[in-house]
């Protein structure tokens, strides 16, 4: 039986090889499957990975939340527009090669997907055969937490842009889930309905003011200079 030390050694050896050679990008195709719309052998399963992150941070009533075993009876992080927003943010925030001098140049979202799925298959090799193309999305909620713990504490990331990326992934996911993006028209720059984030946070919506805060305390309605 593999111990935690064995798993850590396997993970670090895998990662060292990934960081050390550009040919490792060919292994990205291992994460594809017929269960996803992602093109096999061409790109990491970014959308499934991103949805796996969103459901982990803010569980809802979607298929990704049910797969992880932690779900609710209302929409959560996996809502229309949220995954696209998080992918776009990661791509813009990490617009440099994530994996250093190895010659591997991936946009932020794709790089994060590769990283999460490598660690996901270390945590649970069976995750590669789940219903989603991304092993990370196939993990249960507790194992996803373990993956993020490993990413947060792995000393090999010190001095790399990966440390910044790892620390921002759950934070940016929360921002996306609680934002207006699920009901926001980017072209018109206006909301098209009530965003899911408002429901999650019990936000009443924009207002010009509230009756209960009109005037001054104790009946004072003006102050003499």
From TrEMBL:
InterPro entries named in the record: TAT_signal (IPR006311)
The protein, known as: Gluconate 2-dehydrogenase subunit 3 family protein
